[in-house]
Amino acid sequence: MSSVVAIRIYYGDISMTPYADIRMADGVIETICWVNIKERKKFEGAISGYTLIYDEREKRKWEEWL
User: Fold this and answer.
1) Whole-prediction pTM value?
2) Second label for 52, Cα 20 to 30 Å away, from 6, 19, 28, 66?
3) Could you tell me which residues come within 8 angstroms of residue 1 by beta carbon, excluding any fewer than 6 positions away?
4) Please, are residues 65 and 20 in contact by the beta-carbon 8 Å criterion?
């Protein structure tokens, strides 16, 4: 499996289920349900510190977590 270049996480439907578009180095893009551990596990070894993660879900500001 080629390495994961970028991951885009977003809400895919009205049920607020998070999905992810996973862009591989060879140009292939796969969409998975981000909360499905079995689907995510397939990519674990290909994600590194160089993988860009774009989390488009609504969230609080960082300072509010502190």
Assistant:
1) 0.87
2) 66
3) 24, 42, 43, 45, 46
4) no
The DSSP secondary structure of the chain, one letter per residue, reads -PPEEEEEEEE-STT--EEEEEEETTS-EEEEETT-HHHHHTTGGG--TT-EEEE-S----GGGG-
Kindly state whether residue 66 falls inside one of the protein's structural domains: no
Question: What residue type is assigned to position 34 of the chain?
Answer: W
Query: Residue 30's domain spans which residues?
Result: 4-57
- Taking a C-beta distance cutoff of 8 angstroms, is the pair 36, 43 a contact? no
pLDDT tens-digit series, residues 35-57: 999 999 999 999 999 999 999 99
Which single residue is written with the structure tokens 């510190």?
49
